[in-house]
Amino acid sequence: MDAAVDKAGGSAETGRGFLNWVERMGNRLPDPVAIFVAMIGVLVAVSVIGSALGWSAVHPVTGEELAVKSLLSQDLLRQLLSEMPRTYTGFAPLGMVLVLLLGAGVAEQAGLFAALLKKAMGGVNQRLLVPSVILIGMLSSHVGDAGFIIFIPLAGMLFASAGRNPLLGLVLGFAGCCTGLAGNLLPGQYDVLIFGVTQTGAQLLVPDWSMNPLGNWWFLLAIAAANVLTGWLVAVKIVAPRLPSWQGSSIPTPVVDASLSATERRGLRAAGIVALLVALAVASLMVFPGFSPLYDHAGDADVPLRPLFGALVGILFALMLGAGWAYGRAAGTITGHRDVIAKMATGLTPMLPYLVLIFFASHFVAMFGWSNLGPITAIAGAGLLRESGAPTALMLPILTTASAWLDFLIASGSAKWTAMAPVAVPMLMLLDVSPEMTTAAYRVGDTVTNLISPLNPYFVMTLLFCQRYLPQMRMGTLLAATLPLAVVFYLAGMAITAGWVALDLPPGPGASVGYELPAAVSRAN
Q1: CA-CA distance, 121 to 114, in Å (whole number)?
Q2: Phi and psi torsions of 206, nearest 5°
Q3: pTM
Q4: Taking the chain (525 residues) in consecutive chunks of 10 residues, what is each chunk's mean pLDDT?
């Protein structure tokens, strides 16, 4: 049923529905680069006003008073101009994108990705393709931002391989990657990162509180199940019918026939051997006596794998480059090192518009931090939660909503939580809510807005991937496709959060919804 819908759908309908209005208004927006330029102008004006009016907030950890700084001040203007190259090249997503695309360009153009997708097609039930892509997108979040860069275009290719609209695959892959930090089958590196921030806030009230990286596991499973099921329904009933129809394009796409040729099978065997060698090399760098750079034996016992997490981008680059080269040599699509270098260069070509966008996006993010408007906004939002006096079952959904809205101002989930946690976590502990449950509620709001936030660089990247199949596609069409998913994920997350508190369900192993302060802390408060 869903296959027929997304294959024949079209957004040329002239109905008066809300999503048609969103699409029309979105398509009237200027280029994303121009949007960031305008946002920088607004940011400068707000910083000047805030500085003149003396806007400030007290940092809940350091006790330092944070005041809004004017971006037109002598010091910040000097910083803007002198650090412009560093601000651009130091923007974290930029380095990840370029490094991974160097490897992915070889793997894709050599034919490795196409062969892998054809092999995968043989075992995929077409009726389950939509939920499978959402779920795999969630799992890909365990490799950090690399999941967006690698999996989203593969999702489009997978749908095209099945003879279905690749635009739907791209949208669903993007949705899965975005929400994987709040709903997943397994905890991952983000759980360690986010609970590390939670611990900082909790220890302001209870100094010996230590994080439990598994503290959200059961909650993650519930959110994952809800997002897969609701996303499946919304994708089939709402998103697919209104996406522009696709009849094929000039970019290389695997054919619908899922059978592998003898050459392809030979290439996959060679790629598999290289992948095994890379895995063995990584394992040896974790366990080799006296030389284990990917395992921290002397550091924090809670995060001994942090070096491995930090090296994932480099490992994935080596894996895709090596496996792609091996596949190409065995399949005859690569004859020498010059072919490899040419494919690396070609792999970067589709990202040229992204490089232009990131110049302005990186400066907006940096200037927002220089002005202190980001942490001050987060601290003020947490203060409003404290003053609302709402019951716990309502307080946590309020936190979820605040997290979602603040995502338009602070794109990084960990950076936003760093500013909010020192206020929100101890405040809710005093209201008998555990740090684990507070973290779970925050994560729901932090992820859904990424689907529609212009501050999310991967929203624009997804649009660029869509334009490879449909060059005339614009931001409004993508926004109208992701908005229904964002809304249903938000509503499902709110309902699950409120129900979790009402039923007093444990959010994870060794965790609970409620929290009882130690006696000494209770007496002090």
Answers
A1: 10
A2: -125, 95
A3: 0.69
A4: 45 52 68 81 93 84 80 94 91 76 87 74 73 89 74 86 88 92 83 78 77 87 96 93 73 51 91 94 89 78 69 85 94 92 87 82 82 75 68 76 74 66 76 88 87 81 88 87 93 91 89 78 47
